[in-house]
Amino acid sequence: MSLPLLCDLSRAELAAWCEAQGEQKFRADQIRKWLFGKRVNEFDAMTDISAPLRKKLAESFSLFSSHVAAHQKSLDGTEKLLLELSDGERVECVLMREDDRRTICISTQVGCGMGCVFCASGLLGLTRSLSTGEILEQVLRLDRLLPPLERITNVVVMGMGEPLANLPNLLKALAGLEDKGGLGMSMRRVTISTVGLPEKIRELARAGKSYNLAISLHAAENTLRNQLVPVNDKIGIEAILAAADEFFETTGRRVTYEYVVLRERNDSPEQARLLARLLAGRNAHVNLIPMNPVTELPFGDPGAERLREFVEILEQSGVVATIRKRKGADIDAACGQLRLRHQQPAVS
Ligand code: SAH
């Protein structure tokens, strides 16, 4: 049996564990600082922790539960890790470099149960949710790809899975980054992307943090959204927007609406006008994501011309829109591409 993962514990839980060993609570912060801030990979390297406590830690916890099954580097500086978890399941996570920003994209589930028809992650359904430690481990692994003086500046929870379907573990992981001994990361630099689960959006608002919320809308009316995002059938755009409005009122954080632009499916001027009408008057930002073609799926990129026209219509209505830059396309690290190619089990 493998040992419990240290990162599954919150700062408070680790402090309680230290106390139970007859140690001072602040040891927890020291231990976490070694792991997050100083990037050590074994308890024995934690030199201000006494040898007996290091021994107890090593007997009680593992620092990592996964191993790196593949590491790819893109020409644009993007790097992608495929992590194999202790049960053999695999998740991907990505590091992107842009000017001074070092943004990581992390996964919250193995597979996804939402079934968006253009997304590679959901093709095989949901296998399971990740634990807090498994979410944090992606951060630790990606952070270790950076040179000593560089730090992760932004986290986007846009990898595999539906983050709000694994909210308790995600919130605990993010707290692990924010709390003393973690990466000291402001939650204003964290973006959580969701298919749009209204009750969970409200729960996120109540968490009282400054997370950014991104809602994967992809269509401005329910008939089309039901086709593209099947779970919409049970939810509906109106309920999502109502929850998003509440999120904005509670947190003061402007909501981003993501819109994967699919050739001849949701990219017409009429659809742009519908979207503009839906969002006009809201403090919203639209992030257009040109479809990243997935070999197995019959959806195409809209092309630059069509995309420009779409943006212009939104902007004429006063809706702020940006087009998402494609990153790591040569290593299949772009949105919606994660994992599929590695689906075949590795030969052990
Ligand atoms: N489940 C969450 C987060 C993961 S997906 C969500 O739905 O938001 C992150 C973003 O990538 C979503 O907006 C998703 O719709 C988008 N995406 C998925 N497949 C894509 C593809 N093939 N091309 C472009 N974007 C894609």
Task: Give a verbal description of the structure.
It is a single chain. The chain is of the alpha/beta class. It folds into 2 domains: 6-60, DNA polymerase, domain 1 (Orthogonal Bundle), CATH 1.10.150.530; 67-342, TIM Barrel. The protein contains 10 helices and 12 strands. The strands form 2 sheets. It has a 10-stranded mixed sheet with strand order 1-2-3-4-7-8-9-10-11-12. The chain has a two-stranded antiparallel sheet with strand order 5-6. The radius of gyration is 21 Å and the shape is elongated. Mean pLDDT is 94; it is low at 342-348.
Strand order of the largest sheet: 1-2-3-4-7-8-9-10-11-12
- How large a portion of the residues is in β-strands, by DSSP E? 15-25%
The tally of domains stands at 2
Mean pLDDT: 94
Overall helicity: 25-40%
**What small-molecule ligands were found?**
S-adenosyl-L-homocysteine
Radius of gyration: 21 Å
CATH topology of the largest domain: TIM Barrel
> Can you count the helices?
10
| Name of the CATH homologous superfamily of the largest domain | Aldolase class I
Brief characterization of the structure:
This protein has 348 residues and is of the alpha/beta class. Helix content is 32%, strand content 19%. The structure holds S-adenosyl-L-homocysteine.
Salient structural properties:
single chain, 348 residues, alpha/beta, DNA polymerase, domain 1, TIM Barrel, 2 domains, ten-stranded mixed sheet, two-stranded antiparallel ribbon, 10 helices, 19% strand, binds S-adenosyl-L-homocysteine
